[in-house]
Amino acid sequence: SGIIDKIKCPVYIIHGEKDMVVSVELAKEAKNYFKDQAELNIIKDAGHSALYDKEEEYFEILERVLNA
Q: CB of 29 within 8 A of CB of 2?
């Protein structure tokens, strides 16, 4: 078993819809791997640097996650 199998805490994935470095499909696979343990947030019109492309939306997601 790998290290990923040992993760037992909630997993939050924030991904840019137009990411050309890491595909959205890979983010979806990660979400499916962790099932209900994970939350996938895809930021529309953001690329690999979603934080810079859509800073306000990124921080809204981050704030919600941290306050959960």
A: no
pLDDT (tens digit, 9 = 90+) per residue, 38-60? 999 999 999 999 999 999 999 99
Residue 64 has which token pair? 């919600």
Q: For 8-12, which contacts have Cβ atoms below 8 Å and span 24 or more sequence positions? A: 8/37, 9/37, 10/37, 10/38, 10/39, 11/37, 11/38, 11/39, 12/38, 12/39, 12/41, 12/61, 12/65
The DSSP call for residue 59 is H
